[in-house]
Write a structure and sequence with these properties.
Radius of gyration: 18 Å
Structural class: alpha/beta
Strand content: 15-25%
Largest sheet: 7 strands, mixed
Order of helices and strands: HHHEEHEHEHEEEHEHEHEE
Helix content: 25-40%
Number of strands: 11
Number of helices: 9
Oligomer: single chain
Length: about 240
Protein backbone atom coordinates (compact mmCIF):
# COMPACT_ATOMS: atom_id res chain seq x y z
CA UNK A 1 0.00 0.00 0.00
CA UNK A 2 1.54 3.31 -1.08
CA UNK A 3 1.16 6.55 0.90
CA UNK A 4 -1.82 7.88 -1.08
CA UNK A 5 -3.66 4.57 -0.73
CA UNK A 6 -2.85 4.63 2.98
CA UNK A 7 -4.25 8.15 3.28
CA UNK A 8 -7.42 7.20 1.46
CA UNK A 9 -7.93 4.31 3.86
CA UNK A 10 -7.14 6.04 7.16
CA UNK A 11 -7.46 9.81 6.76
CA UNK A 12 -10.83 11.10 7.95
CA UNK A 13 -10.73 14.63 6.50
CA UNK A 14 -10.55 16.09 3.00
CA UNK A 15 -8.38 13.66 1.06
CA UNK A 16 -7.27 16.31 -1.46
CA UNK A 17 -5.95 18.49 1.36
CA UNK A 18 -4.17 15.48 2.82
CA UNK A 19 -2.51 14.62 -0.50
CA UNK A 20 -1.40 18.24 -0.87
CA UNK A 21 0.20 18.13 2.59
CA UNK A 22 1.89 14.85 1.70
CA UNK A 23 3.25 16.32 -1.56
CA UNK A 24 4.57 19.30 0.43
CA UNK A 25 6.75 16.94 2.45
CA UNK A 26 4.67 16.53 5.61
CA UNK A 27 5.02 13.19 7.38
CA UNK A 28 2.04 10.93 6.74
CA UNK A 29 1.74 10.06 10.43
CA UNK A 30 1.20 13.72 11.31
CA UNK A 31 -1.38 14.09 8.54
CA UNK A 32 -3.37 11.11 9.82
CA UNK A 33 -2.74 12.13 13.42
CA UNK A 34 -1.96 8.72 14.88
CA UNK A 35 0.14 5.58 14.54
CA UNK A 36 -0.32 1.98 15.52
CA UNK A 37 2.35 1.19 18.08
CA UNK A 38 2.56 -2.25 19.67
CA UNK A 39 -1.12 -2.72 18.87
CA UNK A 40 -2.14 0.57 20.50
CA UNK A 41 -3.37 3.72 18.78
CA UNK A 42 -1.03 6.57 19.67
CA UNK A 43 -1.92 10.10 18.68
CA UNK A 44 0.93 12.17 17.27
CA UNK A 45 1.50 15.74 16.17
CA UNK A 46 4.54 17.88 15.46
CA UNK A 47 5.24 18.28 19.18
CA UNK A 48 6.30 14.64 19.51
CA UNK A 49 8.53 12.15 17.77
CA UNK A 50 6.80 9.63 15.53
CA UNK A 51 7.07 6.21 17.25
CA UNK A 52 9.07 3.69 15.25
CA UNK A 53 9.41 -0.06 14.92
CA UNK A 54 12.78 0.05 16.69
CA UNK A 55 11.15 1.42 19.81
CA UNK A 56 8.69 -1.47 19.75
CA UNK A 57 11.78 -3.69 19.78
CA UNK A 58 13.18 -1.73 22.73
CA UNK A 59 10.02 -2.54 24.66
CA UNK A 60 10.08 -6.19 23.60
CA UNK A 61 13.68 -6.58 24.75
CA UNK A 62 13.12 -4.73 28.01
CA UNK A 63 9.99 -6.70 28.86
CA UNK A 64 11.90 -9.97 28.68
CA UNK A 65 14.28 -8.76 31.41
CA UNK A 66 11.59 -7.11 33.53
CA UNK A 67 9.57 -10.31 33.54
CA UNK A 68 12.67 -12.28 34.52
CA UNK A 69 13.63 -10.15 37.49
CA UNK A 70 10.55 -8.28 38.77
CA UNK A 71 6.96 -9.12 39.65
CA UNK A 72 5.58 -5.61 40.28
CA UNK A 73 8.15 -3.21 38.83
CA UNK A 74 8.21 0.53 39.30
CA UNK A 75 9.24 2.06 35.97
CA UNK A 76 10.38 5.51 34.81
CA UNK A 77 10.28 6.53 31.14
CA UNK A 78 12.65 9.45 30.48
CA UNK A 79 11.72 11.71 27.56
CA UNK A 80 8.31 10.17 27.08
CA UNK A 81 7.21 12.23 24.04
CA UNK A 82 3.92 10.73 22.86
CA UNK A 83 3.91 8.41 25.87
CA UNK A 84 4.15 5.32 23.67
CA UNK A 85 6.76 3.52 25.81
CA UNK A 86 5.10 4.22 29.15
CA UNK A 87 1.63 3.34 27.86
CA UNK A 88 2.78 0.08 26.29
CA UNK A 89 4.68 -1.03 29.39
CA UNK A 90 1.69 -0.27 31.61
CA UNK A 91 -0.62 -2.27 29.34
CA UNK A 92 1.80 -5.19 29.13
CA UNK A 93 2.54 -5.06 32.88
CA UNK A 94 -0.77 -4.06 34.49
CA UNK A 95 0.61 -4.57 38.02
CA UNK A 96 3.47 -2.14 37.41
CA UNK A 97 3.73 1.47 38.54
CA UNK A 98 4.73 3.65 35.60
CA UNK A 99 5.98 7.23 35.74
CA UNK A 100 7.07 9.27 32.74
CA UNK A 101 8.76 12.62 32.25
CA UNK A 102 9.40 15.16 29.55
CA UNK A 103 10.66 18.73 29.44
CA UNK A 104 8.07 19.78 26.84
CA UNK A 105 4.62 20.90 28.01
CA UNK A 106 3.28 20.23 24.52
CA UNK A 107 4.64 16.68 24.48
CA UNK A 108 3.23 16.01 27.96
CA UNK A 109 -0.17 17.16 26.74
CA UNK A 110 -0.05 14.59 23.94
CA UNK A 111 1.19 11.87 26.30
CA UNK A 112 -1.56 12.52 28.84
CA UNK A 113 -4.19 12.38 26.10
CA UNK A 114 -2.76 9.09 24.83
CA UNK A 115 -2.69 7.62 28.32
CA UNK A 116 -6.35 8.55 28.79
CA UNK A 117 -7.38 7.16 25.39
CA UNK A 118 -5.57 3.90 26.17
CA UNK A 119 -7.04 3.63 29.69
CA UNK A 120 -3.64 3.57 31.36
CA UNK A 121 -2.83 4.99 34.79
CA UNK A 122 0.50 6.79 34.38
CA UNK A 123 1.98 9.62 36.46
CA UNK A 124 3.59 12.31 34.31
CA UNK A 125 6.21 14.84 35.39
CA UNK A 126 7.62 17.91 33.72
CA UNK A 127 11.34 17.65 34.33
CA UNK A 128 14.65 18.40 32.69
CA UNK A 129 15.90 14.84 32.75
CA UNK A 130 15.97 13.71 36.41
CA UNK A 131 16.03 17.16 38.02
CA UNK A 132 12.53 16.95 39.54
CA UNK A 133 12.42 13.22 40.19
CA UNK A 134 12.64 12.04 43.81
CA UNK A 135 11.35 8.44 43.67
CA UNK A 136 13.35 5.28 43.23
CA UNK A 137 12.67 2.81 40.43
CA UNK A 138 13.35 -0.76 39.45
CA UNK A 139 13.51 0.16 35.75
CA UNK A 140 14.58 3.29 33.91
CA UNK A 141 13.92 3.23 30.19
CA UNK A 142 14.64 5.90 27.59
CA UNK A 143 14.74 6.58 23.89
CA UNK A 144 16.53 9.92 24.23
CA UNK A 145 17.62 12.27 21.46
CA UNK A 146 20.77 10.66 20.05
CA UNK A 147 21.44 12.09 16.59
CA UNK A 148 24.61 14.14 16.23
CA UNK A 149 23.93 17.65 14.89
CA UNK A 150 26.44 16.92 12.11
CA UNK A 151 24.89 13.60 11.10
CA UNK A 152 24.37 13.51 7.34
CA UNK A 153 22.38 10.26 7.37
CA UNK A 154 19.16 11.72 8.78
CA UNK A 155 16.40 11.79 6.18
CA UNK A 156 14.93 15.15 5.14
CA UNK A 157 11.39 14.05 5.99
CA UNK A 158 12.53 13.43 9.57
CA UNK A 159 14.66 16.56 9.85
CA UNK A 160 11.97 18.79 8.34
CA UNK A 161 9.01 17.41 10.30
CA UNK A 162 9.88 16.07 13.71
CA UNK A 163 10.81 18.16 16.78
CA UNK A 164 14.56 18.72 16.90
CA UNK A 165 14.47 18.64 20.70
CA UNK A 166 13.54 14.95 20.40
CA UNK A 167 16.09 14.14 17.70
CA UNK A 168 19.42 15.87 18.25
CA UNK A 169 21.99 15.82 21.03
CA UNK A 170 25.34 17.43 21.68
CA UNK A 171 28.58 15.52 22.23
CA UNK A 172 28.27 13.32 19.14
CA UNK A 173 24.75 12.40 20.17
CA UNK A 174 25.87 11.07 23.58
CA UNK A 175 24.87 13.99 25.82
CA UNK A 176 21.65 12.53 27.24
CA UNK A 177 23.10 9.08 27.87
CA UNK A 178 25.86 10.74 29.90
CA UNK A 179 23.33 12.84 31.82
CA UNK A 180 21.12 9.88 32.64
CA UNK A 181 23.93 7.54 33.62
CA UNK A 182 25.71 10.21 35.66
CA UNK A 183 22.62 11.07 37.69
CA UNK A 184 20.29 8.09 37.79
CA UNK A 185 21.84 6.08 40.64
CA UNK A 186 19.93 8.23 43.16
CA UNK A 187 16.69 7.15 41.46
CA UNK A 188 17.44 3.43 41.17
CA UNK A 189 16.88 0.61 43.59
CA UNK A 190 19.89 -1.61 44.22
CA UNK A 191 18.46 -4.28 41.91
CA UNK A 192 17.56 -2.46 38.73
CA UNK A 193 17.48 -2.29 34.95
CA UNK A 194 18.41 0.58 32.64
CA UNK A 195 17.26 0.21 29.03
CA UNK A 196 18.20 2.49 26.14
CA UNK A 197 17.51 2.78 22.45
CA UNK A 198 20.74 4.00 20.84
CA UNK A 199 22.27 5.10 17.58
CA UNK A 200 23.72 2.10 15.79
CA UNK A 201 27.30 3.45 16.04
CA UNK A 202 27.11 4.36 19.72
CA UNK A 203 27.24 1.04 21.56
CA UNK A 204 30.93 1.05 22.48
CA UNK A 205 30.84 4.66 23.69
CA UNK A 206 27.73 4.07 25.82
CA UNK A 207 29.22 0.91 27.29
CA UNK A 208 32.28 2.94 28.30
CA UNK A 209 30.10 5.63 29.89
CA UNK A 210 28.07 2.98 31.71
CA UNK A 211 31.13 1.35 33.22
CA UNK A 212 32.28 4.72 34.54
CA UNK A 213 29.15 5.07 36.67
CA UNK A 214 28.08 1.42 37.05
CA UNK A 215 31.36 -0.52 37.06
CA UNK A 216 29.76 -3.73 38.34
CA UNK A 217 26.85 -3.81 35.95
CA UNK A 218 26.15 -6.37 33.26
CA UNK A 219 25.82 -4.63 29.88
CA UNK A 220 23.95 -6.31 27.05
CA UNK A 221 23.91 -4.93 23.50
CA UNK A 222 20.98 -6.05 21.36
CA UNK A 223 20.53 -5.67 17.61
CA UNK A 224 17.42 -4.52 15.79
CA UNK A 225 15.78 -6.40 12.93
CA UNK A 226 18.27 -4.78 10.55
CA UNK A 227 21.13 -6.41 12.49
CA UNK A 228 22.35 -3.05 13.79
CA UNK A 229 23.33 -2.41 17.41
CA UNK A 230 20.25 -0.54 18.64
CA UNK A 231 19.58 -1.32 22.31
CA UNK A 232 21.55 -1.47 25.52
CA UNK A 233 20.23 -3.25 28.59
CA UNK A 234 22.11 -2.57 31.84
CA UNK A 235 21.53 -5.00 34.69
CA UNK A 236 22.45 -3.98 38.23
CA UNK A 237 22.55 -6.72 40.87
CA UNK A 238 20.08 -8.82 38.91
CA UNK A 239 22.02 -12.07 38.71
Amino acid sequence: MNDIEYLKKYYKGNINDAIKRLNNGEAIQYIIGSVNFYGNEIKVNKNVLIPRFETEELIENTLSYINKYFDTPKILDIGTGSGCIAITLKKELPNSIVHALDISDEALGVARENAKENNTDITFFKSNMLDNIKDKYDVIISNPPYIDYNDNEIMDIVKNNEPHIALFAEDNGLYYYKEILKNCSKNLNKKSIIAFEIGYKQASDIKEITLKYFPNSKIIVKQDLQKKDRFIIILNNCE
